[in-house]
Write a structure and sequence with these properties.
The structure is a single chain. This protein is mainly β. Among the domains are: 40-161, Lipocalin (Beta Barrel), CATH 2.40.128.280; 176-266, Immunoglobulins (Immunoglobulin-like); 274-367, Immunoglobulin-like, CATH 2.60.40; 600-693, no CATH class. The protein contains two helices and 51 strands. Strand 49 (655-661) and strand 50 form a beta hairpin. The longest helix is centred in the first third of the chain and has 5 residues, at 36-40. The protein is rod-shaped and about 145 Å long. InterPro entries: Lipocalin-like (IPR024311). Residues 52-140 form the Lipocalin-like domain. This is Lipocalin-like domain-containing protein.
Amino acid sequence: MKHSLRFSHFKVYGLFAFLVSSLLVGCSKDDDGTGNNSFYSGALKSATITNLEGSWSIVEAESNGEKVEIPPTTQECGRDFFNFSTENRYSEFLFTSSSCAPESNSYGFELIDGIITLTDQLGQNEELVIIELTSEKLSFKTQIDIDEDGTMDILIFYARRYNPPAEIDIYSSTFIHNNTVDYRDKIQLSWFPYIGYNEFSRYEIYRSAGDCDKTKAELIATLETQEIDVFIDENPAVSDNLCYYFRVYTDKGLLGESELVSIDTGDLEVSPVTVSEPVVGNESISLNWTQYFGRYFSHYEITARNYSSGSGYGYQEITVKTIDDISTLEFTDNDPPYFLNPVYTVYVVDIFGNKSLGTIEGEHSWQTNFKRKELLGLDFIRKLAIDPDDTIVYLYGRQTGNQDLTIIKYNYTTNTIEAISDIPPTSHTDIDMKVIETEEGKEILFAQGNGFNVYDATTLEYKYELRIVDLYPSFNDLTYLSNNLWVFTDDDEVFTCIRDGKDLNLVDSEVHFTEHQSSNNYQIINLDNNQVLIGHSNEPNSLRFTIDSNGFLTERTSIPIPILSDWKKETFYNANQNYIVNLAEGRLYSLTNYSVLDNFVEPNFSYGISADGNIIFGSENDPDVIDLLDSQHEKKAYTYDWTSQTIDEYATKGYPHFIFENHLGQKISISSGLLRPRLDFGMPSPDLFVERIE
């Protein structure tokens, strides 16, 4: 009787899983065949390992004289089979699914006098007795307790030489980039390790930088350990994008090749280092930190920022130092930044430009209690005026910690605030704050609607409001001539007045331009010999007025020189050279014959002129830039000598915003330690200071 039985697989211990006992029910037991003598009888003592070597597949099983055919496991994968090697290794391969990924077991074996002894990893043994061995056939006996009665039954298995079908590649499709949270600090690739029935040769890993192109890929790793299933690229190429692919080889050659796996190196994460609390000295800040032990180190980047937390327009971070030695763990900043209480952070930067993520204050960053003596302590500056006789600037802005704006008197030689206005202005217009010395002494004039607040220039004590008696013009500009004689303008007229203390008594007035202009962009330029020039940014010509000793307007002339200033007042007069310079259009005009003396394009953004009239001061920093952090602002000042047509460049400590020449002939800049488009732009941390350009 033949049963349609399927021989399932080898046992983990005991070699084979015996056939299902119910399929053999009814078969009488051969009581004589259960003894050891019967089991070992007939052993083919001439069998050798050389004869045994190779692959075999069981085609029949026999118990008590009844044979059962063993069909293929699956049509797709072929038959289960086993293999003996000359290295005394026994391996078995069983196919349990149509994926053709074999389950395998491997044991050591010995062959003595026709008896094969299999030994598992625990040292347990199983015996097979060879009863036939030819080049194509192998028959052997094993003992299995089929009916579980405690007595071992003898089964005979009949095997044939077997050439497994071409192995199916089930490995290359499993090649992936491990990019979950636990692996984002490295480039780690993994795959399903080879478990096939051919002899494993190697894995190969290839890499292509930039474009995903296999033809440009290079072999970066050859792995000869079969069980390995992961590869970390410890020395990757520096590129925004890296692509990898994988090959698996057996003794039969190339088994499989994966598709390219693309990795965006910008997604890699860098672990932070711990920073100790900085040590703050008089003019230094010392840092130390723990060493970085991650991958792909490029450098430590030490930064200082102007905020403890938050973000937004005006929040900035500057690089103080980069250190490319991974074992250097300390740094002293002997040139701390020019802004209040900088927050220091030590980042780790990898070769791809990724920064460590940690910015937890007190762990990765620290706010310091540090202030450079040069810092003004102003959040922003709305107006300024230069003292013509001293190293003093008068600044109208907001002091840190206050809501109201005020006027301060700052000595940039001693770096001290010498006075603060006792009664600050309540509003401001586009008229410049002015330092004027008259018969009343040196005063600060600050426009307030229809009048001017007058302050003592020494103490900044409020004196009174200066007004034109019985008139209420909306002033655009003013200038002082001499002998208490003043000139004013509004949107329509020019006025001359004689001052009597806090009163301005009208002497004369006249309509200037026939077309009423808005925007308050009128400017008065004080010329020699009691003459003034009045213009507006919309007018192609200017008006020159002569005022007699009594204050009357006696002469009016239209001249072909535009005054293109807006509220920044970019048109100046130089008495030594008798010219008008219009910084807005980059031109010098002669006041003798109104010809153009020079055209200039550098500096791009100009601020003023030297006392002798030969030098124009400026920078390349655009005050109207929209994307400040992506701008080309630089810590440099430029001078243009129009007589020699030469440009000179000066390195500055901060970003220049207003450059002037003082009474000592020194070039002075009001600068910011951080990027800001203009002096009146607010920042999270005070960074304004006055510096000498050398």
